[in-house]
Amino acid sequence: DTEVTQTPKHLVMGMTNKKSLKCEQHMGHRAMYWYKQKAKKPPELMFVYSYEKLSINESVPSRFSPECPNSSLLNLHLHALQPEDSALYLCASSQDRVGELFFGEGSRLTVL
Amino acid sequence: AQKITQTQPGMFVQEKEAVTLDCTYDTSDPSYGLFWYKQPSSGEMIFLIYQGSYDQQNATEGRYSLNFQKARKSANLVISASQLGDSAMYFCAMREHFTGNQFYFGTGTSLTVIP
Known about the structure:
heterodimer; B: mainly beta; 6-stranded mixed β-sheet; 12 strands
């Protein structure tokens, strides 16, 4: 059982839709991450929150908007996406500045 | 320069045999951690093994061991007694003390176990 829970597991949306991906962890981790992954490629870092503050933004387009409501939750709001944004979106958490990443099972996004 | 290099895009191994997946890294930070992850076709990234830069001994976790050669900056994953369920993508990653929450991933190796 993964200790990082992501919902939904699959999402299909049109280019004009607004949707959100959600992530939750109860391991007491203070760092939370969003990664984007294309098939057969490594995960690409999008955002990192440390103690609920955005600490890394890897020049992600504004159509992706992260939110960290509290230390256990991480959201990724999606608006006006493009077909090339179709990918597996992975949420992860870790202790701040040490230890391994714990990944969720991912949300597989298709943009039509 | 690439922080993590995995030079084997694809590997094949016979069931029950051992296989080594290569990983080299580049850092000037004396304090860092090295990680291996497995990603089956289902998509979940599964943590396998960790090696700290100050660890004196090579890490082992069940059938997984990490061949850590600090002077050569290599951290190869050895899987013993391969099983069909080991077929997956394998990623090597590094975390530096200085850069904190930034993880660097290699391009991955696709391992196929042949019955």
